[in-house]
Amino acid sequence: MGNVYSEYLSSSKVKEHYNYTKENLDTKETPSRQVASALIIVLCCAIVVENLLVLIAVARNSKFHSAMYLFLGNLAASDLLAGVAFIANTLLSGSVTLGLTPVQWFAREGSAFITLSASVFSLLAIAIERHVAIAKVKLYGSDKSCRMLLLIAASWLISLVLGGLPILGWNCLGHLEACSTVLPLYAKPYVLCVVTIFSVILSAIVALYIRIYCVVRSSQADVAGPQTLALLKTVTIVLGVFIFCWLPAFSILLLDYACPVRACPVLYQAHYFFAFATLNSLLNPVIYTWRSRDLRREVLRPLQCWRRAAGVQGGRDGTPGHRLLPLRSSSSLERGTHMPTSPTFLEGNTMV
């Protein structure tokens, strides 16, 4: 084991593993690769900005300091870090890859695994919260905040452990025949383990949303009012986008486990599948916040402030400025209910 760890700082190990698993080590920066890298970085910058706006909105407005919005904030944080990790991954790819030491390579890939895993676990936490709030009609009170924080902390701890296993020793250094083609320093059993865990999480989310769907469909009119269609539509969008974005990446990793070395050329294009999976981090804030008018207004408030500042400047030049509209207390998903809109009631009745 000590001999394995001694190879972590070797500058030739990464190239050795890539030579073994890849048919062609052409890392030359072509114009098409540079354009693709630039597009990926722009996409990740959009992910960072979008999720940062969500975090600012949740933090600055006390109305969103409830269970559902706390989980949304955690999802936004994990997606934001996923965007940052993927930017670093892109900048350290190509010709830079072969100059990395194993510990640098593990840090590059592990950071992406950790943040993307945290995003998936956040989706699971939101599904659990929705099941508790809707299927069991159980509200979160102030005494439950500790449980929510523990759930969030547990999701990050599991993600750190899952992403850090290779650097702790579950890798294929010294065992080239056990190496993954997609991730040449990762052991194939580790890749299978990750796919299995994500598949179990996906199955759990599907089961929870099916349960929610059944409860809403069987509810009485006073429970399944106008929110029913909003809930079903949101569940359909969330579930469909999640599967649509992640299924190709899961499939390529399963194929990687099953294929002998250099037997499946499609594995050499795996980076496109992972880039596509990252779209989930871009779409998550849209799905979860666009259904709430209040959160949408708060997310867009910094942009409105910028327009207001521009309008004031324009007013000095003879163009009337625009006044910033106050945040309304009603949500597009809260129509049809006459219950008070305090954070506690919102948590139990807003269908996100």
From TrEMBL:
Segments for region (Disordered): 332-352
Protein name per UniProt: Sphingosine 1-phosphate receptor 2
Cysteines engaged in disulfide bonds, as pairs: 172-179, 259-264
Cellular component GO terms, alphabetical: glutamatergic synapse; plasma membrane; postsynapse; presynapse
SUPFAM superfamilies named among the record's database cross-references: Family A G protein-coupled receptor-like
GO BP terms: actin cytoskeleton organization; excitatory postsynaptic potential; filopodium assembly; negative regulation of excitatory postsynaptic potential; positive regulation of establishment of endothelial barrier; regulation of postsynapse assembly
Organism of origin: Balaenoptera musculus (Blue whale)
Biological classification of the source: Eukaryota, Metazoa, Chordata, Craniata, Vertebrata
PROSITE patterns in UniProt: G_PROTEIN_RECEP_F1_1, G_PROTEIN_RECEP_F1_2
